[in-house]
Amino acid sequence: DLGALLDELAGDYREQDKDVSLSDMNRAAVRARPMLLRRALRNLIDNAVAYGLRARLSVAVEGREARIIISDDGPGLSAEQIAALIEPFARGEQSRNRATGGAGLGLSIAREIAEGEGGTLTLASRAGGGLDAVIALPVQA
What we know:
Blueprint: H1 2-15, E1 20-25, H2 34-52, E2 55-62, E3 65-71, H3 79-85, H4 106-116, E4 120-125, E5 131-138
Parallel strand pairs: 1-2
Antiparallel strand pairs: 2-3, 3-5, 4-5
Helix pairs in contact: 2-4
């Protein structure tokens, strides 16, 4: 139940005074390993909060696919930046200071988890700013 999972994650972040909220939540159930899916979503939410100051979580259902959308209000990314950042060890923050960024594995881990669960991870900048990270998974029959 994606709604329950996202509600739990948003609550965890709010307990840490992070601006993470739920928006459009279509009902959807997927067959996935919960711990892995939770890890992928945490990686994406962490990025949204770090680079976009807040995260909005939603679920859309299109045909036989559930789309988990993590939206932020950051500056967005170019197509070239998206292609580069999805690769292992790529970091958007270029300093070597670990306090200002991770090891550059979060997006590649999220992608590997999504693909391992039969889905995909896409990143897309929105017109006017912001980024949507979308994990699309088959809806459970």
